[in-house]
Amino acid sequence: MECAVVIVENGCIVIYKSDDRLKLEKEVIRAKKSGFPYAVIVPRDANTTI
Hints:
By secondary structure, the protein is α+β, with helices and mostly antiparallel strands. It contains 1 helix and 3 strands; from the N terminus they run E-E-H-E.
């Protein structure tokens, strides 16, 4: 199931889309450490936590 992470980096909106949950988790961790705002987008019927 494809999910996405949206990160605002230095004024630019960057969207990472992937079926690979680990790849998206790495991007979320990187955003948290850098203090960048981010959002995780999952399909409505998904029951997942990143």
